[in-house]
């Protein structure tokens, strides 16, 4: 262990928590299988200890063991977690309960399901505060909760106090849970992958917030994450966890500069690069236009609870235009709520747009019905994010893949089986799986089944709506290679809809950035990343967790707050409420995606590129610390 | 507030349509089944001419839609018509003395008959539900909180046992044990509150198994929700998490079950149980009316039952939206 003080002098230097030889196993039929082995570390006061590891490395189990939240089939097989001179693992449940929530706080990765969905958020935080601090009166407690809501910059905290969990976005909910954790002034906060479900710009805000609060509230933090870029951003020291053991423990800057263990080096190498030495796709295609989208809009009606027989209009997609050429990889990026999923439903003809046209090889798809529509659907296929619900559990894999051929009446008997088996081997599925049920398949294999099912129809256009988001980095890379190989062989066109900037950087030749139902920037790959023309694109890029130097400084572009509600879109430029460069003209005049600059680069902004801070070609030093 | 007003306006208007449709179906069915109600009203001795005259007078020879329109108009003014058979005193006349013609004034009004019988049925139903809850809530919650352990098994065995007992048999056995053999409680007819107890137990035996299963499943499911385990780690005690959060969340599916399923079971149960115990409620009234082809009573009860279902479901849905604000109706 590094930096162990020779003699412990004052109380300030003695560790808040000390973990000694902690081992955890899972009880199975064949006895106890170890998950964590001999974990030892200390958490220094007022410090942030980062723990990094891939999925399956035992991060979450470790974070839960620190608050003694280990339940069967998991079992603690040895070691101790010392807190305040006592071993948490040996304390009676009652005393553990007295510490949890008061001195030890825990925040998990799933903010939206962490609270009772039927009770207002503020009331639940109040309930917790009163439970952990008996004797505090209602009014004081309430005031304290509202003060803390203000401290994490939840706007109109008094009103938010009475709102329900479903009215909070993921980011707001995570803030509320930070309030819940900090409201009782804990000594130690354990944050398990808290930024994982959040959009990058929101995650960046949460990280900065946590850093500020850590100082204000004098709390130590154990910050667990699978993204090295995020840990590097917040932690002082970093532990690297591999298969349940600590393989390296270093201060963060030393770790990035001089990793000691092979596994750490591998981890650092695996973080996708966006600028320095990024893999980039070939130049944009010059082929024929396959898909032409002009001024497409889609509005949904929702019932208004506060007015009689009234509806609110959710403007999910507001006038989107772009073209996709044959054999091209077209990327659509944006954060949750930007309308990209609605757009994918429109593109795949699951819904018709309220306005505008989508033309596939010249035919307006909204006008098609019956047989021509079925024929069109054969030619373009949609692949979704969740590989589990997309496959019927009771049908054999072969039958699942054969289904579209049967629906379209394209093959039968011997030929059918041959086609299916060809598709299976094309996507790397063993043909032995033909008669098996999908029960034991991994997420990656399931996604391959989905891909095979789409490919048997020999489509010309594949729409990939977050198709790779639920897979780990390795599996993702393999499938990207697969897509590339298929494209080379068949000349398929792909539309990638994603929030993952690194992936889009790697594969998409043309990219559209969406914000609040609009395309705000449309560009080729290289110019988009090297000199983004819209402040929102720059904010996105500045917030990506990476281990490299970014051309856009977080301090210049960090966004405040969250995107406005698509029910209530601000007049003028819809981004102006969060834009660091907004000026008077933005309030009144809505910038449209202009004609491009000749090089196919267009942005919906009143500012010229030169009026924003110049991108740093190469910043000195590590990722900015404060 | 606007939400509540809109909710009730919409649901009441939908409900009216449903009741109207039910009324139309019942009304038509009763008039196309074989058998002339005139024969029942006037008895076998009446002559063919009297029969035809009275039928014309009562409007029974008009086209169906006109009859239905007239009927709806009367119902709207609160007039459910008059019984074909029952006299003003309540007894059945059995026809024959009216061989010369029919005087509607001599027959009991349906609204009056129902108003007399309804309080008894409400009391029986209320007591039956109370008994069922008394058994099902503790067993169901204990089973849900201890899934896989002995309370869960008790819940399963109790509900399997209860669900497999036919209510006629339970009724007879209870009469034999509690009334005939020991004399603790009276059983047949009605001369005081104690006459309600045995029939209510029979109803409860029929209702409780569904409740036990629903409560235990719902509680167990909510214990598995993330917010429960996270709540414990947040520092809230197990007792508070169960009392304030798990049970509250578990109530929503239960209320829906109550509206959708239990009310139907209760109505069916009332008919059988009242008949076994000669209990003077709506069920008894209806069954006798069916035997006597007393159409005005049958159709009034059917309409009333559908209206009750619609109203209870409306209230249940509203209560659900108050508990869980995510629900939209």
In short:
Chain A is of the alpha/beta class and 626 residues long. Helices cover 32% and strands 23% of the residues of chain A.
Ends of chain B: how far apart? 15 Å
Number of helices of chain B: 12
Query: Topology as H/E string of chain B?
Result: HHHHEEHHHHHHHH
CATH fold label of the largest domain in chain B = MetI-like fold
Can you tell me about this structure?
The complex is a heterodimer of chains A (626) and B (329). In chain A, the strands form four sheets. A seven-stranded mixed beta sheet of chain A has the order 16-17-18-13-19-20-21, with helices on both faces. A six-stranded mixed beta sheet of chain A has the order 6-7-8-3-9-10, with helices on both faces. In chain A, strands 2-1-4-5 form a four-stranded antiparallel beta sheet, with helices on one face. Chain A has 626 residues and is of the alpha/beta class. Chain A is globular, with a radius of gyration of 26 Å. Chain B has 329 residues and is an all-alpha fold. Chain B has helices at 2-32, 37-42, 48-58, 64-76, 110-145, 150-163, 167-181, 197-223, 226-233, 238-276, 282-291, 295-323, and strands at 82-87, 107-109. The relative contact order of chain B is 0.13.
